[in-house]
Amino acid sequence: MDATPLATRYDVRAIDAERLMVLVPALLLVTLLTFVPISSNDFWLQVTIGGMIWNDGSIPRTVLFPFTEAKDYPFIAHEWLPSVVVYLLHRALGFDLLVFVKGAIGLLMFALAYRLAERLTRDAVLATLLAVVALVVGNYRHFLRPEIFALVFLLVLLNLLVEYQLTGRRRILLWALPLAALWANCHASFPIALIIVMLFGAGAAVDYVRASRPAPGALLARGAVAAAAPYLVLAAGMAFAVLLNPYGYRLYAFAWRMSQWSVLSQFIIEWRPTFADPFVGNRAFWAFIAYLVGTLALGVVYRKRLSATVVMLFLAFALLAMQRQRYIVLFAYTGLYCIAATLGSIVLHERARRLVAAAGSATLALAIAAALRYGNMYSAWPHTVTSDNFTPPMEQFIRDNHLEGNVFNSYGLGAQLIHDFYPRLRPLIDSRIDAYGEPYFLYTVHLGVNEKALLEFIERYDVRYFLLSWDEFRNRIGTMPKLRESGWRMLFADHKAVLLGREPAR
User: What is the gyration radius of the CA atoms in the chain, in angstroms?
Assistant: First the structure.
């Protein structure tokens, strides 16, 4: 006979029911948000370059694909490892089944976010809800591209740092060394890892001083250094581990150059300022604003309980997120740490916990209904997504007509043009703006608005075709009268793109 008191057994069952009440709809919502088809325009380039690395055993050293002199520009393949992984996944599963890979990464990120929040709050219901909120805010960047690997690494790093905070076991920090090396071989955002570790170190030093006053100054200084030392030593070790990449120390310079480019914020949407069109006002923007304001309000209410690490992380990544919209996703997960660490000292009574579970499950139900009706944070559903991918009729037309030659293409169409038709068709540019550089990118923009320069360019490089988005055709190339007079006509068009060719001279 079970000797456990009835009340205790009831409480355990109630707790399990509350967990399921939020966990089941949370998993369903995460599934709807992340199990969506591939849509990023550089996916095909990742597959192509990954295949070259896997089959040739070497990383391309130049841009290689365009028909201009840009083909000889040096290429730093800072995303070489994810490219190989994506190539192998695509070869094994095919394009359509990659939706499950994308979704599986979403579930992994949810699990890591949940573990981070649960270790800090010690409450499964709160942790589930906080993890879902973080994933919703970061969902607008959930694409199968190298950045998603970096986000997984970010969550792993935060989990390692929290585990050390809670247990004091320094061996746990050693796992951050291979993580840093892996991050550096996957994405140029790896300096973020070093910044986070140093902020944890600075926070530990400040918190020690705050807790130890009014001790003598020398004693405070020694204690602060001792508190920060494990983090600072780790940051130094990670800085050296990063050098285990094909480019060594040059990768630091590459990451710095990318962060300084002004052209990115003018032409590439993800690099534009957060409070600028077309991002401002859409659902991802308002999710960020709500998250930012909610986190700030929580900090004000519980300001006496805030640790220095929480304050520093919040300020650093909130300011970063307000500069460029692509940084919001970093704030989504560092903000999760800030919220969970702040709530960690709060104990919910049984009735309050039940209310949180009920309110959370109701909110999740509404979020599921919204996702079913309106899609995820970039309007994608498990069955459909908007993308620049070629339509089957466009692909079929190019193949059936055996088109060959140089193609003046829109920026977003270059990657699939390379994957499907290189070297028969060679592009003007693809999505590797980091390799082409600002001057070349601006040169291609100039050609689209200067008809005389464009006509000279066509003759110089023997351009045979234009492959353009409708927006670029209507607002730029299609408005040029001399281009039409010189024999250019529409060969094929669908709802996504326009293919132009030139009539032979008579």
Answer: 26
pLDDT of 11 > 60? The answer is: no
Please tell me the distance from the alpha carbon of residue 326 to that of residue 357, in angstroms, as a whole number: 32
Contact 501, 402 (CB under 8 A): no
CA distance 287 to 370: 13
| pLDDT averaged over every residue in the chain | 92
Residue 325's pLDDT band, with cuts at 50, 70 and 90, is: very high
**pTM to 2 decimals?**
0.94
Which phi and psi (to 5°) does residue 22 adopt?
-105, -30
Indicate the pLDDT class of residue 505, thresholds 50, 70 and 90. very low
Residue 237, class by beta-carbon neighbours within 10 Å (0-12 exposed, 13-18 middle, 19+ buried)? Answer: middle
Cα(370)–Cα(45) distance, rounded to whole angstroms?
Answer: 33
Instruction: Say which residues have a Cβ less than 8 Å from residue 52's Cβ, sequence separation at least 6.
Output: 60
How high is the pLDDT of residue 375? 97
Residue 87 bridge partners (DSSP): none
99-112 confidence digits (pLDDT tens): 999 999 999 999 99
**Burial state string for 190-228 with b = 16 or more CB within 10 A and e = fewer than 16:** bbbbbebbbbbbbbbbbbbbeeeeeeeeeebeebbeebb
Say which residue the tokens 């030593």 belong to.
233
The whole-angstrom separation of Cα 139 and Cα 384 is: 16
Q: Note if the bond before 214 is cis, omega within 30 degrees.
A: yes
Q: How many CA atoms lie within 13 A of 146 on its CB side?
A: 25
DSSP one-letter code for 215: S
Give SS3 for 304. helix
**pLDDT tens-digit profile of 32-91?**
999 999 999 899 999 999 999 999 999 999 999 999 999 999 999 999 999 999 999 999
Q: Name the nearest CA neighbour of 73 among 491, 397, 480, 430.
A: 430
* Cα-based torsion angle of the residue sequence 336, 342, 347, 349 in order, rounded to the nearest 10 degrees: -60
Q: How far is CA 333 from CA 44, 340, 367, 409, 483, in A?
A: 28, 11, 20, 37, 50
The position carrying tokens 């009440």 is 21
User: pLDDT, tens digit, for every residue of 393-415?
Assistant: 999 999 999 999 999 999 999 99
**Which residue type occupies 76?**
I
The whole-angstrom separation of Cα 273 and Cα 279 is 9
Of 57, 61, 65, 54, which Cα lies nearest the Cα of 89? 54
Contact (CB, 8 A) for 73 and 435: yes
Length of the chain in residues, anyone?
Answer: 506
What is the DSSP secondary-structure string of 335-349?
HHHHHHHHHTT----
Give the three-class secondary structure for 62. strand
